[in-house]
Recover the amino acids of this structure.
């Protein structure tokens, strides 16, 4: 696993932030100057890759590609995989990503100003495509297996792991670098800000993302990149790899209703499908990393969905978005990492800022303080625009 | 602009913008084989030349530009035509 997040630039920093319930949300004055309704955002420094990657490798990387390079480099190191292994084996890459706004804006600005496409240069095309992360990383790490990007809105990273799991289960690949990446910049979130979906609790940035809380007023956009290396059991055994978790269930569904309003039925079907795929009873799930983004309708509907599927056993629930903000295309992958860190280190990270549940969210067993607990199996939810839903179940080995 | 100044400027742009190692700068160097300038780098050279020398390179005129000396000559002739 590897992570470049607003709550830490590597696994060690992220574990510390999760444990201490630290927020990565800030007030960005630039957004206010630009005319944003909300200046709140998760924030992390842009990696400096000059001297690390050569010019040709850097020039095609947008900011989320830079984040993803760092998270993937850490994941490979964490998994004990060297370049010689990647050169000698068919390793694939499946990343979740659903935008690359800045290179699109900048290249069109150049065209409008210069009225000559030749002045755009060679890098923007590779930066501006949705598949930018998988295309760049496959070249940088010389990968030879499956190679594409999944765009499934805010469930992209989760679907990437789910599809990777299915390919490995089918015996079509032995190892796939999965993940999710999300750019952080005003250009990519301006049209989202226009939907009045962001929290405007600007006086208290660290308290703005408050999933399941009665006084939640919207999500906080965020980003970064997360990389999870999945492989067949045989591959892991052959390498003598330490196994951090086993993907045992993937459930997906579509709401078939509104483009932005979530419902209850779609997430219920995704979670039930994941449980069936895992071949377990709902009561065997110890912890749920909720999608809950801190929007009034989304959190309520997810709480109802969780209560329908898991109401009898009431597993622990928290939304790490209370700390990270909504990592969108990245979130499904990063939240698998956050949950796996908790599973490895025997704690459940808190759903910070939950001061007063409402009548629906109080039905859940939401963890508000860091809780020592040995998670054996967790479920991670990710839902997105268009009503796309993904639920992953991962078990400790 | 004097020819020596043009050559100095081209060399500096190749070092700064295309990240060619200074030790490789040599008039006899083949742009592709020795300096590793590929077709994508040529696209960036179009931008670099217009931004720094104020004229548009034409792809068809580059067909005979093989060495760094050819490139110096091309730029010099465009700036200081005889």
């Amino acid at each position: 696993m590897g992570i470049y997040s607003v709550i830490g630039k590597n696994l060690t920093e992220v574990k510390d932030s999760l444990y201490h319930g630290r927020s990565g949300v800030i007030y960005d004055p630039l957004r206010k100057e630009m005319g944003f309704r909300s200046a709140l955002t998760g924030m992390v420094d842009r990696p400096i890759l000059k001297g690390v990657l050569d010019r040709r490798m850097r020039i095609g990387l947008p900011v989320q590609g830079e984040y993803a390079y760092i998270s993937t480099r850490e994941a490979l190191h964490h998994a004990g995989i060297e370049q010689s292994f990647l050169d000698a084996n068919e390793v694939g890459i499946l990343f979740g990503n659903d935008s690359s706004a800045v290179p699109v804006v900048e290249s069109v600005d150049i065209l409008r100003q210069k009225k000559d496409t030749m002045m755009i240069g060679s890098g923007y095309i590779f930066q501006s495509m949705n598949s930018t992360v998988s295309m760049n990383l496959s070249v940088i790490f010389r990968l030879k297996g499956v190679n594409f990007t999944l765009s499934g809105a805010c469930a992209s990273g989760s679907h990437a792991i789910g599809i990777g799991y299915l390919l490995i289960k089918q015996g079509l690949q032995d190892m796939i670098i999965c993940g999710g990446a999300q750019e952080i910049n005003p250009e990519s979130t301006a049209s989202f800000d226009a939907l009045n979906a962001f929290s405007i609790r600007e006086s208290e940035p660290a308290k703005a993302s408050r999933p399941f809380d009665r006084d939640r007023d919207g999500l906080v956009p965020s980003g970064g990149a997360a990389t999870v290396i999945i492989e067949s059991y045989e591959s892991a055994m052959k390498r003598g790899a330490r196994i951090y978790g086993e993907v045992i269930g993937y459930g997906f569904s579509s709401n078939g209703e509104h483009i932005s309003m979530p419902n209850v039925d779609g997430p219920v079907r995704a979670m039930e499908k994941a449980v069936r795929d895992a071949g377990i009873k709902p009561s065997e799930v110890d912890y749920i990393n909720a999608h809950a983004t801190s929007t009034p309708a989304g959190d309520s509907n997810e709480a109802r969905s969780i209560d329908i599927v898991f109401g009898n056993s009431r597993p622990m629930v928290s939304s790490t978005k209370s700390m990270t903000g909504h990592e969108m295309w990245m979130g499904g992958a990063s939240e698998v990492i956050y949950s796996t860190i908790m599973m490895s280190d025997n704690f459940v990270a808190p759903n910070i800022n939950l001061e007063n549940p409402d009548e629906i969210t109080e039905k859940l067993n939401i963890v508000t303080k860091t809780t020592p607990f040995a998670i054996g199996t967790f479920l991670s939810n990710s839902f997105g625009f268009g009503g796309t839903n993904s639920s992953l179940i991962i078990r400790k080995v | 602009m004097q020819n020596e100044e043009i050559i100095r400027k081209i060399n500096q742009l190749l070092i700064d913008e295309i990240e060619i190692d200074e030790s490789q700068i040599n008039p006899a160097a083949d742009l592709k084989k020795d300096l590793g300038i590929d077709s994508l780098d040529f696209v960036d050279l179009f931008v670099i030349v217009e931004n720094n020398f104020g004229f548009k390179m034409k792809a068809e005129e580059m067909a005979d530009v093989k060495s760094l000396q050819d490139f110096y000559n091309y730029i010099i002739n465009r700036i200081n035509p005889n």
About this structure: The CA atoms of residues 252 and 270 of chain A lie 5 Å apart. Residues 63-79 of chain A form the longest helix (17 residues). The interface with chain B takes residues 54-56, 59, 116, 118-123 of chain A (CB under 8 Å). Chain A has 16 helices and 15 strands.
